[in-house]
Amino acid sequence: MSKEQIEKLFEPKRQSPVAIFMFLYTFVRRFFGALWPLIAIFFIGNRDKTSIVDTSIGIMVLVASTGTLVMSVLSYFRYYYFMEGDSFNIHKGVLNKKKINLPFERIQNINFEQKIIHQIFNVVSLEIDTAGSAKSEIKIEALPKAEAEAIRDYILEKKKSLTPLEIENTEGEFKEEEKVPDQLLLSLNIFDLIKVGVSQNHIRTAFIIMGLGFSFIGQIEDALNFDLIELTIKNLKSIGGGLILALTLFIVFLIISFLVTLFRTVLKNFNLKFYKSKEGYKLTSGLFTRQEVALRKEKVQIITWSDNPIRRFFKIFTLQIKQAASGVGKRRGQSVEVPGCYKNQVDEVLYSCFDDLSKVEFKAHQIDYAYVKRMFIYIGIIPTIILGLIYALTFNLKWIILTIIFPFVAFGLLSVYYKKYRLNLSDQYIKITKGIFGVTNIVLPFYKIQSVELVQTIYQRKKGIANVNIYTAGGSLSIPYLNLEKAQSLRNYILFTVESSDKKWM
Amino acid sequence: MNMDHLFVNEQIDISNLPQADEVTWVPLNKKYLPISLLSTALFGLLLLSIFLVVNFVNTDMIEDNRIVFSVIGGVILLFVFILLISALGFKHKAYALREHDVLYKSGLIFRKTIALPFNRVQHSEINQGPIERKFNLASLEIFTAGGSQSDLTIPGLLNEDAQSMKAFIMEKASKHE
What we know:
The complex is a heterodimer.
Chain A: H1 3-9, H2 18-44, H3 52-77, E1 80-84, E2 87-92, E3 98-103, E4 107-114, H4 116-121, E5 123-130, E6 138-144, H5 145-162, E7 183-187, H6 190-198, H7 202-224, H8 228-269, E8 273-276, E9 280-285, E10 290-296, E11 300-306, H9 309-314, E12 317-323, E13 335-341, H10 343-353, E14 363-365, H11 370-394, H12 397-420, E15 422-425, E16 429-434, E17 440-445, E18 449-456, H13 458-463, E19 465-472, E20 475-483, H14 484-500
Antiparallel strand pairs in A: 1-2, 2-3, 4-5, 4-10, 5-6, 7-8, 8-9, 9-10, 11-12, 11-17, 12-13, 14-15, 15-16, 16-17, 18-19, 19-20
Helix pairs in contact in A: 2-3, 6-8, 7-8, 11-12
Chain B: E1 26-27, H1 32-57, H2 65-89, E2 94-97, E3 101-106, E4 111-117, E5 123-127, H3 130-134, E6 137-143, E7 152-158, H4 159-174
Antiparallel strand pairs in B: 1-2, 2-3, 3-4, 5-6, 6-7
């Protein structure tokens, strides 16, 4: 970076005018979010008599839309960002002026995103992730890509020199050190994407689409005033009976969901590139919304990788890296999903984030068999009773078949889950492997844990069993039905490790 | 040399670790039970009166009086249930401060015990509602980076106790910064 470029960063600057669109979008969304019931009443409401309510809502909508437009433009002109000393600053606000000053050392990460509109104008939005309980979220809606990169590089570089270990090189010339190029670990071509898309969980999507489909059909029926499903069923029944109908419907939805997931996967992960960088990892992906997420090794809290029968056939895993996040709720940049990883890429990430993991020996523990007994009541017996009741009401043979089969299936699935569930413990790590058809692995080091909780229901108290909930800054995990003694010593050991460790969890 | 490094390669006998189950639990202040019941009941009454006022002003909102009565009955039943649960659950709520962490247990049906090490505390707050202030009670809320579920709230503390607990915890927490 040249000196001129750096000086430029210190001048207060407005965003790219594209930001007006983004402000407008935010305002409109917020506006509709708050007022959609009113607007709906206005448009759908009884048109016979124009009441005073209608007129006033109309005026309100008009005023609010003009207001939004004006506010968007004003917000744009009132928004400045610049660097000052060792901090990043934003001055903004039309009515309530707000000055945000963010010291570099509080900045955790800087992420970019490009929605379609950004791509057209070759700009990006920049989001600054801060540590701890900072409440202000900082997001610059639109700025030129080169500038965003300059800001990121400068801040991250500067931030490093601010850490107490490297006192030299704090002020003065910005060292033009040779940039370590990011090493490409994984890139997905269209063929890989199809593999990933094919191996998604289609049955889950099928259920979602089924739900949507039925409500959509319902709406059309209401509008056209006739019974589409009844008609189809009648026609199909004449062809071959209820079971075939159910099967046909299921296959149709499965095909639709297959195509939808494939399409979504390709869009989301289009041109996915996963790099190893100096600080950690970097992921860029997406066709319409191009995102770039940076991961820092020390911020990683939990790593998960999972397969399923199709993925196992392709020998690929979906890798999920969960970072410490600030603020409330799920935010972008917290969890990064890298589909289509081979085992060696999974290992590479695992061993570089948790460096001593490769040498660790785990001792495996099982959950209590009471898990199967108890869960069978909820997902085996209760549904079976309902199915039986339906049979009793309809006397349809189909239901009695289901009633007989269902408990066996439920019991089988639960038993497999129980048999495959392993809580693996070493002196520093906890690793859970579980899954019915596939295998999901979850790993985290003890010292990243924030708090531990033991929960017991009445039944569990009687049986001497407890659930253990473990909370980290990157999400929580729950171990069900562990023998109480084991649960307690696990908790005591976690507390001991956390309290006697001075390793930084972030 | 830092003491903590001594732990690293040492053989650890799990049974010798500090037992979180054998602490002396400190129950919440006795005044807290009637006060929390009172404020729940007041909240229920407030909800009911809002409903009644709206219904009275806007007479044609609900035409059938039976619906009005069943709503009132439902709300009363719900609040009686909540009151019952919190009355019965009160004696299961307790906390314990240890050298390196704070424990809090609660729950009538789901018995929970949460443990929060001081070196993971982000910040803490003392909250006092208007009724609590009258009776010199406060609740202490301790935050970690583990999300809202892992935060810990100890209600029913004497205000002085809450203040000194907060100071104690924050002092412990700041040592690890």
